[in-house]
Amino acid sequence: MPPKWTVKWAVAGGYSIIGCKMPIAHSMMSANNFTFNGLNLPGNTSNPNGSRVTPVAIGQLPGLNTLGISMVRIDYAPWGINPPHTHPKSTEILTVIESSLQVGFVNSNPDNGLITKTLHKGDMFVFPVGLVHFQRNVETVNVVPIAALSG
Q1: Binding-site residues for oxalate, please?
Q2: Is the distance from CB of 21 to CB of 6 less than 8 angstroms?
């Protein structure tokens, strides 16, 4: 029987994060396949959006293969934005680690209303699967949230 391939992807800000890995053979497994170091490191926000996404998906952490989960760290410079985007096959749950962050999504009922809130350190927010959503730093200091994505 051929090995199972797993593909996880998200479209964000005009680029795709694609991971595709063959299953890890038992004889080649080690703790390194299940460990990622680096979410403590700030991302470079010197770009037009003033934000940087640091993904932890199959490409960075092979042990995630077939599990249907991933995480990201998002760094925001003052007034930085993660522009409107969607994850067609993933729900996202975001936790603010430092400072405050405005978040929102467009709901899918007939009026396409905007659901928005300013989150503070320790607050969480869920972006339902497939809905257009965004995050924006409304502070004059850097903001750091961590998000997990399903499926």
Answers
A1: 82, 87, 92
A2: yes
Dihedral angle sign, alpha carbons of residues 92, 96, 97, 99 = positive
pLDDT band, residue 12 (cuts 50/70/90): very low
Q: Which amino acid belongs to residue 8?
A: K
Give the pLDDT score at 26: 63
- Measured CA to CA, the distance from residue 134 to residue 66 in angstroms comes to 27
Cα–Cα distance for residue pair 42/55, rounded to 1 Å = 12
Known binding-site positions for Mn(2+):
85, 87, 92, 133
3-class secondary structure, 81 = strand
The CATH number of residue 44's host domain is 2.60.120.10
Q: Cα-atom radius of gyration of the chain, to the nearest Å?
A: 16
Number of domains in the chain: 1
pLDDT mean across residues, the chain = 86
87-146 pLDDT, tens digit per residue, is 999 999 999 999 999 999 999 888 889 999 999 999 999 999 999 999 999 999 999 999
* Binding annotation: 82, 85, 87, 92, 133
**Boundaries of domain holding 97:** 6-150
pLDDT of residue 10: 40
